[in-house]
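Recall the central idea of this unit: under ordinary conditions, the amino acid sequence of a chain determines the structure it adopts. In this exercise we apply that idea directly, starting from the sequence alone.
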Amino acid sequence: MKSSKSVIQKRQDKIMNHLAQFQSAEVVTLAKWLKISEITVRRDLDQMARKGLVERFFGGVRLVGQQSTPASGEPQSSDLDLVKEEIVQAAAQMIEDKDVVFINSSSTAMRIVPYLKDKSVVIVTNNAKLI
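Accordingly, the structure predicted from this sequence is:
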């Protein structure tokens, strides 16, 4: 399915914003995050690489000039952040008004707090940062 130039540009802008924050990403992770096929991500990344915006490496992409190449098989921080965000969004959808929610001190659990601000919930925690 062909996309308009504006749709492609918006998608590539999202990729660039992600790379500005995390420096690198894997094709698989970007495909899941953008809800598009891996081949579409590769096509976008190839186009961006031809423009000199990014550098491709096997299975992923990084901003031009970034030194480190991810070790194969090791999750990268950008990939972990995307996974954590997906977990938090799914968990937040399950929480309803009047629920009692325990939030521990893990970085993943802490990410749910902004999603709870408009909900009437009781939060139980052992995390001093939330008090």
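Helices lie at 5-22, 27-34, 38-50, 77-94, 107-110, 113-116.
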